[in-house]
Amino acid sequence: MSIWRYANPLEFMRLSGRLLTPLWVAACVLLAVGLGWAVFGTPDDYRQGSTVKIMFIHVPAAMLSINTYAIMAIASAVGIIRRHHVSFLVAKAAAPIGLAFTAIALITGAVWGQPMWGAWWVWDARLTAVLIMFFFYLGYIALWATIDEPEKAADLSGILCLVGVIFAFLSRYAVMFWATLHQGSSLSVAEGQRMDDAFRTPLYIMMVAFYLLFIALLLVRARTEIRLRRARSLRLQALAA
Amino acid sequence: MSFLAGKYALYVIAAYGSTALILGWLLWATLAANARARRELAEAEKERGR
Asked: What ipTM was assigned to the predicted interfaces of this complex?
């Protein structure tokens, strides 16, 4: 069975309709368990004090901000190359979610940085790359909103998305290229465990919860875009008749 | 709930509060847009049926 059958809006609507309820339930349960564990069940860090609890929302949000951009870029590339409308609509649907997670990552990072680094913001390579990626999200959403012709909007915003991929890449890997104030990865398969189990387990739960929430939101937004496109198409057919 | 009384309490509450606000807005905007799209499609299908 080919994955491309889900580029058919009817197939996409059927599959996503079946997945949505279990996704919402799993996301809510894991979010409740993860938040409860993170806030009430973890000790304070010996150096960071209670600000370590910010990590449980900052890390999943930061991961999603970068990965959402990667998903948008892949969907845009598939849309441009294979002319699949659902791919463009998935990229469009993902943008506000990525924007929200990037805003959460930036805000929670600043709130953690003030007591720990002594500054709300530093022009560090990773932070700057994430900020530029935030503006790419804004630009992408604005471009879709300002062009009336959907085909043209999809192509131009897709190209803009692909241009911004470099900043998603830098957001992820800047800590490897430059000596940055932002610490490197704490969850690295290659470099082994750097975090105590007391923090690691609830962090994993929060990461899974955020990803499930992301998928549920993405499916709802993609279904919204497909419905709007269908409504527009019906209206145009009625006008032409 | 030691973190609510600690010296970093405001920072932790601000981080979780701002996250709740942003996710709340995202959820509301997503569900509202979906409801609007459903209505719009239903109207378009009704108009087509006339």
From this structure: 0.91
